[in-house]
Amino acid sequence: MKKVLVIMLALAMVIGLAACGGTTPANNTPANNTPANNTPAEVKPNTDYVIRIYSNSNDTPRVEWFTKYAADHGFKISLDDSTVYKGDDKAVQMANEKKDGDILFGLNETRWGQVIKGNYENLKLADWTPTWAGKVGDFKYDGKAYGLVIQNVLMLYRNDEVGTNGKALKFNHWADIVDCGYKWYRQGKVGGTTNSNINNAMLYAFTDPSSPAGGISIDGWKTLWKYCAGGNFTGDSYGFDPLNKGDVQVSTFYSSAYYGKLDEASTKSEKPVTPDTCKLVDIADGTYYIAEYVGILDKAGRSEADTLQVKAFAEWFGGAETQAAWAEQWDTYPCNEEAAKAVYPSVPEIYTLKNFALNKVEGTDMNYAEYVGAHSAEWTNIMTNLGFYWADQKDAKTEPDWANLDWATLTQKKAE
User: Fold this and answer.
1) Cα–Cα distance between 330 and 323 in angstroms, integer?
2) Which of 85, 204, 292, 358 shows its CA 20 to 30 Å from the CA of 368?
3) What's the pLDDT score for residue 41?
4) Do domains 47-148+291-343 and 151-289+350-410 have the same CATH topology?
5) Domain residue spans in the chain?
6) Three-state DSSP state, 353
């Protein structure tokens, strides 16, 4: 890439000299750079173009690091941080409303499936196949979007005297946490990618395509309510911090930040966990995996030169060198196998867990990730309408009368 940039800069200098009255090239090409045979000159990427990006990987430190890293490699980017919008739903919503995006990255299979199927009227993906397309395994939508980062959700416990005191935890399903006999952490809101993925994991054992309750059995919603009502919300940290402080014995977290959190655990608590005392719950089902992707938006009015620069950026961003740097900085696991090998000598334990997202849902022609995509709006509406995940215990809701609910209404978006 650095060699490409050197060539591009050299070309820019030549063009600049010509524009300033420099010597006409020896082949007598006219000043407008159109060859004598009237064939248009090859279009070059516009290296001054500011690439507009929408992503849910946009916490402030990440945006600041990425903006500088891209600039150091010859790309000018614009990416709002989480003070402007937060979460995959907001990232897609903003991109759809603003109609000024060049790149969409992050999100997960559920949201990408919706984008590719045309659920968002102003978001259309350009046709594009990077040179590294064959390096990301099954994490791709051929010709449209390609995997960057693999993530999953984790269920953790501490086995020291503050936790299970040496007892190993083994569940059949994620939802078995409600009967574990220990204090557990739960999230404090319905929305957010990690929160949604945890709910997806909890509901996996209760799929029922015939159920009017969003394709989930009533027992599934009862169990998720029990998880919410009996859980402890101590702050929106996705679960590692309360586990590390000893506030709970069992918790949930997301894989990409786990090892970084474990490394700094001793600086954040008077009774911290260690690699020996923080364990993965052994869950027979496995866990819910997602991949984050990158795609190029088909932006109206963008010139060919600007589009070439956007494609150059996407090619660079998903390549092994950049993804290895991203993984080193943010403790992520790359889809790009060359990047993964560069960063991790062996596959970390948290990425050896079984992936039930790709298991077929009985009674359908969909795998579970596709099933989630088909029903996610209904699930969000159900949880919002029934009042799941209050942040303050004083705002706890009364358990619904499960036998007398109007699911047709509950699966609709709550009136504002």
Assistant:
1) 10
2) 85
3) 59
4) yes
5) 1-42, 47-148+291-343, 151-289+350-410
6) coil
Class of domain 47-148+291-343: alpha beta
Mean pLDDT in residue range 54-74 = 97
What the block records as the tokens of 108 is: 């997960």
Side-chain-facing half-sphere of 205: CA atoms under 13 Å = 20
* pLDDT digits 0-9 by tens, 343-401: 999 999 999 999 999 899 999 999 898 899 899 999 999 999 999 999 988 899 999 99
pLDDT in tens, 212-250: 999 999 999 999 999 999 999 988 678 999 999 999 999
* pLDDT confidence tier of residue 416, bands split at 50, 70 and 90: low
CATH superfamily of 151-289+350-410: Periplasmic binding protein-like II (3.40.190.10)
Q: How confident is the model at residue 181 (pLDDT cuts 50, 70, 90)?
A: very high
**Which long-range contacts link 310-313 to residues 24+ away (Cβ below 8 Å)?**
310/49, 310/51, 310/102, 310/103, 311/128, 312/4, 312/45, 312/75, 313/51, 313/70, 313/75, 313/77, 313/103
DSSP label at 394?
Answer: G
CB of 16 within 8 A of CB of 44? no
The DSSP code for 24 is P
* Assigned token pair, 315: 């090619």
* 228 within 8 A of 198, measured Cβ to Cβ: no
For residues 369 and 376, the answer to whether their CB atoms sit within 8 Å is no
Confidence of residue 257 (pLDDT cuts 50, 70, 90): confident
pTM exceeds 0.90 = no
Q: Do 280 and 265 form a contact (C-beta atoms < 8 A)? A: no
Sequence-ordered list of residues with C-beta below 8 angstroms from that of 48, at least 6 positions apart, any chain:
76
The Cα 271–Cα 274 span in angstroms is 10
DSSP 184: B
How many angstroms separate the CA atoms of 112 and 124, rounded?
11
Structure confidence at residue 27 as a pLDDT band (50, 70, 90): very low
| Inter-CA distances, 216 with 203, 208, 262, Å | 7, 5, 35
CB atoms within 10 A of CB 113: 19
**Which residues, 6+ apart, have CB-to-CB distance to 374 below 8 Å?**
215, 366
Residue 103 DSSP class: E
